[in-house]
Design brief:
Elements (H helix, E strand, L loop, with lengths): L5 H30 L4 H17 L17 H4 L3
């Protein structure tokens, strides 16, 4: 397996930081937008999503594991 140079590790780190910032901003905008909805089902979902998807399990999204498969099907992961 080919070794990554120092520059490549720096690029991966910066990319991950960028994705993390975008995720936080996107989550805040999502909650702000849908938080204005008066439907009780939407409010219940937002509460659940914030507790489970943002606080309890913050690393569920694709960008949390760089350099790993982004599909749970190994064959599908090789599609280009």
């Amino acid at each position: 397996m080919k070794s990554l140079g120092r520059q490549s590790y720096t690029n991966v780190f910066l990319h991950c930081q960028y994705k993390s910032i975008l995720r936080k901003l996107g989550s805040a905008l999502f909650l702000e937008k849908w938080g204005k909805d008066k439907d009780i089902c939407v409010k219940d979902f937002l509460q659940y999503f914030e507790e489970q998807g943002l606080q309890k399990y913050p690393h569920w999204y694709e960008g949390a594991a760089p350099k790993f498969l982004n599909a749970n099907n190994g064959l599908e992961a090789t599609n280009l």
